[in-house]
Amino acid sequence: MTERYAVIGHPVGHSKSPWIHARFAQATGQDIAYDRIDAPLDGFERTVDAFRAAGGRGLNVTLPFKQAAFRYSQELSERARRAQAVNTLAFRERIYGDNTDGVGLVRDLEINLSRRLAATAVLLMGAGGAAQGVVGALLEAGVARLVIANRTVQRAEALAARFPRAAASGYGEVRGPFDIVINATAAGLDGEALALPGSVLASGTLAYDMVYGRDTAFLQAARAAGARTCDGLGMLVEQAAESFFVWRGVRPATRDVLDGLRGG
Ligand code: NAP
Fold it and tell me: Fewer beta carbons under 10 A from the terminal one: N or C of the chain?
């Protein structure tokens, strides 16, 4: 019998997740249907309740509901507990909440982009849901220096305080160099770059923007400084593959799907 999954967010019309999961299902022979659910801002719980009541088996959760999904979960994976945010819900005997953003980012960096994280210096920009989801996985991968910078410095400080080896900073005070600079903010979508000191981006740095399909102001500034750049499409595909594994117990290959999204 076909089992139902979906991505829930607001807005969600742009989401590539249905396409990605349809490819995974086809390649692994899993009988699933995967839709988009646009939930009202004040209606996350009742929308998920209705999806479950109609037989839904799992959800990917995107902006702005990752904290709501964390609260909705009855059982949490260790990585969701660490992140205090949930991007994957599985409806088992209990409601299981997981977070696959961190492992998705680490796999994209280490496998798809061949950048080993062990003993590197990483600047993570942002302290919202996306940043929360990846700090634990970056530290677990062996990052030696992790600085979290955010416009609202107190949010960076609160996030860094939850992890023994992370430090917090404002943008103007960050001191490089860094091997990898990750933009986990929504800034730059409007064409305005974050004001980073010159020491942060250099040739040899990998500048990674979690936003995908857009040449953001951050990526443009990084290229001008001679840094290598990459968007977050690989992270999107890798976090989806991990969610698929959480739901189905089967790990889909990602390379062809990523190539397909990049038009290759
Ligand atoms: P969020 O929880 O709303 O957090 C937004 C972050 O952006 C905060 O750190 C906020 O700083 C910062 N910000 C927003 N506008 C800014 C501006 N004009 N100048 C400076 N900082 C600004 O959002 P999120 O869930 O973390 O998502 C962030 C981005 O990552 C989104 O574009 C999302 O699509 C992307 N993402 C991609 C993937 C992927 O798989 N590739 C996965 C997750 C998220 P303050 O704290 O100061 O407000």
Answer: N
